[in-house]
Amino acid sequence: MREILLQNIHKIHTTTMGADRIRKNLQLPNNFDVTEYCKSMILNPAGNIYKQGKNFYCEAENVRLTINSYSYTIITAHRIKQS
What we know:
Elements: H1 2-7, H2 16-26, H3 34-43, E1 48-52, E2 55-60, E3 63-68, E4 74-79
Antiparallel strand pairs: 1-2, 2-3, 3-4
């Protein structure tokens, strides 16, 4: 799955609402470039990328990204709670 996502990294994008949601969930500044941040997480070699249903999930740095596997739209991001 990692290879497919990396081959299409140039297609990764989000909507205005998606960027706002990600900034809120990850407590990022308003002027923060969410797409570039998410791309850097995808490129992180220590990250875990897998596909479940129609979405890719990327887990790195205690954050889980949800990316639509057809449109490469970043849907949301959440902090992973440590148990």
